[in-house]
User: Fold this.
Amino acid sequence: MAASKEDDTISITVEFSGGLEMLFSNERKLPLSIPAKDDTGARTNVAYLVNYLCENAMKDPKKELFVLDGTVRPGILVLINDADWELEGEEKYEVQEGDNILFVSTLHGG
Amino acid sequence: MASTLIIESLRQQIASCEVQLRDLQRQLAEAEHSHQQQLQERKHQSAQTGTDPLAYDFTHGIHDDFKSEVYAALLHTEDVQPPPNRWPLEKNEYRRYGRQLIVPVIGLQGQLLLKGASVLIVGVGGLGCPAAAYLVGAGVGTVGLVDGDTVEESNLHRQILHSTSRVGMTKVESAMVALHSLNPNVKLIPHHGRLSPETAISTVQSYDLVLDCTDTPASRYLISDTCVLLGKPLVSSSALRIDGQLMVLNNPPLPPGNTAGGPCYRCVFPKPPPPDSVLTCGDGGILGPVVGVMGVLQALEAIKVLTRFTGASTNGAASSDSPSLLIFSAYSNPMFRAMRLRARKPKCAACSAQATVTLEALSSGSLDYVQFCGTVAPVDALSANERISVENYAKIRLEANPFTGSEPSKDSHILVDVREKVQFDICSLEGSVNIPFSIVERTPGFSLKSSGNIDGSGEETDWVSELRKHSDKPVFVLCRRGNDSQITVKRMKELGLDNGGQRWIGDIKGGLQAWRISIDADFPEY
Assistant:
């Protein structure tokens, strides 16, 4: 497995903030190796990553606190390399080696 | 018992009023003192302008016919405005603001901008208190305060303007007392009650800038919409537990449809979060300095926006150019991270050319923010025979059986406390066992086999097998207020722990809160 790693997978860092870490076993920072391509052979994008996280990294069964209607639920900001994913093409952004992807849940306390 | 409670409560009220009275007396003394000083200063000034002109003897110099005119003219000088001040700030202001005046980004120009500015602070809690203290301290000319709550003891660890003696006072009044004694130069405007769609426009209208220091999604959307419609920049912040977030929105505050304006709250969060994902400080907890840091940063951002036009800061072009989200995480390294935010959303409901949020819609009350954000219905998951009152549970626990005469035994049943461990460790009923709700929730659906065979989630299912072992004993479930306990009872039954109805499993109504109110007043309230 290790031999073909460089071609098949990309290494990224996924981070959680604003309470989302509680859905991921209280891990705020998750170094991750994900497949470079999805089942159809297309390059892995953020939509794929979100689904991948749900199925592989999330221990909590309350998936609806992370994903709703097939996308990240309202109230969660996705930040790709310190920028709003809106600036990068949202779900269609193709994940690059070394990317930092941060999921932030909005807070409301005051 | 009841009468001693009343006596104690009256004693406390008297003590609290006495402290308030002393506080008012001190304020009166301060006010009288400064009034006296002002009078003396004025007297001093008029003394310098010379002797009383009316005391001059005109009898030999001026014709009688002119006397009355001269007198009239001389008398008139009393109405004439004093000559324009040589200095743009009052004498005391140079001393008071000296340390910030000499900072290049402020300077005299910046101080005058602050003095001429008005800021509305919505919410005088954990964010609003420090924010107001720094803005009033800095000499912002007018500060408005909006809040509908009264001061509670559980506010005091973080809401630094309030005090022990002012518990029970409205937050607006309490903050006014503290802020006035901090800086009497600032005009404070109280707005009692929560901001609502009906009051938002008239309340915000006369201010230059708004701080959102509230704690619900509904108020955040309302404040943002109002700011967009009235063209006010908005400094929005929030905090929970050990995290905080900060954004400067609608900055620059250009009219809806102008894409050069800064994004609004709706651009960043077009849809509200599901109501059950929203945690309050009361339920999630909050560390005082965390929310304090965020409130102080709001004051800082407000000062930056208000003094933006001073020569010194234009080359910095600080916060106005690129909208950003500042994330504070007290236990991460680094603690602060700034994220680049999007520009205005082309189809934003509030600030785009296609906006549906309009002044008319807002002021007519046709926008229901509470409905837009949804509410969490009170949990009502169980039937009456699956529940027991604290009084009846207390009998089971404390009283001997009247028929058999047998002493009550804690072993006769199982008491499960589903609060999180940190809360259980603060205080718990003797003999209760702790199964945190977060673990109950995470327990996979139909775990027919008992111990941890499902992807390493050993701890989750341990509690299930443990309860199965004692299948003859009834189970009472307890939590802080009586919501999670109901859901847990349902869950236990789904897992078959009631042996198809042979074993009683039920929840204690109202939880430990009801227990404290009706049974044991000494049980800690937190």
Q: What stands out?
A: The two ends of chain A are 49 Å apart (CA to CA). Confidence is low (pLDDT under 50) at residues 1-5 of chain A.
